[in-house]
């Protein structure tokens, strides 16, 4: 009977609030290793602004603040503050490379539209704040 309970518990892995892709984890590992901060992680947060209303932000952080959700995925510690979590829940941090360079991005299932090459997003389908444009990814 105990073995049955253990196998059921092992089969029901809790869903992570936020994840990181394999390539994103590789890139983050290198950045964290060179940061000089012991036990640092990647803080993912939302701030107001951008062409759609919200912008993603990321930083190397060795502090765990009250209310933070801390997820370890692929060996990387992801820290998300309480206010940002509702907008980031279910998201995946990734690293993309293209002809313009490379950088971290967030694949967010909560975003109903985005602009600024995916750095800005909106969740409710409403118009951009203050009539701001759609932003776009230009190579100018």
What does this structure look like?
This protein has 140 residues and is of the alpha+beta class. The chain has one domain: Hypothetical Protein Aq_1857, Chain: A. It has three helices and nine strands. It has helices spanning 2-11, 22-35, 82-88, and strands spanning 18-20, 41-49, 53-61, 69-73, 76-80, 91-98, 101-107, 113-115, 120-122. The strands form two sheets. It has a six-stranded mixed beta sheet. Strand 2 (41-49) and strand 3 (53-61) form a beta hairpin. The N and C termini lie far apart (66 Å). It comes from Deinococcus cavernae. It holds the Pfam family Fe-S_biosyn. This is Iron-sulfur cluster assembly accessory protein.
What is the CATH fold-level name? Hypothetical Protein Aq_1857, Chain: A
CATH class: Mainly Beta
What share of the residues does DSSP label as strand, in percent? 35-45%
The main sheet comes to: 6 strands, mixed
What is the helix content? 10-25%
In N-to-C order, the SSE pattern is: HEHEEEEHEEEE
Please tell me the overall pLDDT. 79
Shape type: globular
**Total domain count:** 1
Oligomer: single chain
Q: Could you say what the CATH architecture is?
A: Sandwich
């Amino acid at each position: 009977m105990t073995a049955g309970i253990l196998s059921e518990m092992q089969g029901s892995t809790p869903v992570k609030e936020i994840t990181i892709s394999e390539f994103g984890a590789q890139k983050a590992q290198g950045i964290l290793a060179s940061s000089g901060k012991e036990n640092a992680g990647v803080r993912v947060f939302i701030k107001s602004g951008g062409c759609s209303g919200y912008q993603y932000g990321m930083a190397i952080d060795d502090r765990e603040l009250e209310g933070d959700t801390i997820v370890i995925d692929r060996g990387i510690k992801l820290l998300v503050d309480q206010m940002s979590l509702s907008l980031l829940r279910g998201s995946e941090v990734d690293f993309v490379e293209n002809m313009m360079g490379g950088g971290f991005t967030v694949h967010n299932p909560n975003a109903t539209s985005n602009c600024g090459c995916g750095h800005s997003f909106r969740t409710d389908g409403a118009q951009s704040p203050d009539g701001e444009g759609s932003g776009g990814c230009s190579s100018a």
